[in-house]
Design a protein that fits this description.
This protein is mainly α. Helices cover about 65% and strands about 0% of the residues.
Length: about 130
């Protein structure tokens, strides 16, 4: 079986590196309510600055972790499942990108829905 060369594997880390960098940029946008360019945007996060800040700090952390995971897992999956066809690169790109997006949205929405009500008010902390 012909395996992918190291140059292609290095190129496969670029999306993970960009996701990692974007995580820091999103965390930096948490203080700018609402940021036109960067940030995690949903109906709830646009309600007020407190929700915006919390959501973007959390989403930035998730993106940093996803970036590291993509740097490691994406080339590894391509190497393991390489069939000698370029389609494998596109399939793995799409798969990891979609998984990252679903994970980011699911975790961030669960986090902010656990902390804030639908009006953007902090939920009472239970003892």
């Amino acid at each position: 079986m012909e395996h992918v060369n190291s140059g292609v594997l290095l190129i496969m880390t670029l999306p993970g590196i960009l996701t990692f960098i974007y995580g820091f940029m999103v965390r930096g946008s948490a203080s700018k309510f609402p940021s036109l360019g960067l940030g995690y945007k949903s109906d709830l996060t646009r309600i007020n600055a407190q929700v915006w800040s919390e959501a973007n700090n959390f989403a930035g952390k998730v993106l940093i972790i996803l970036g590291i995971a993509n740097i490691i897992l994406w080339p590894l999956a391509t190497y393991i499942f390489w069939d000698g066809l370029e389609t494998m690169i596109y399939m793995s790109c799409g798969t990891f990108a979609m998984l990252s997006l679903v994970i980011l949205m699911t975790l961030t929405e669960k986090h902010i829905n656990g902390m804030f009500d639908n009006n953007g008010n902090p939920k009472a902390v239970r003892a």
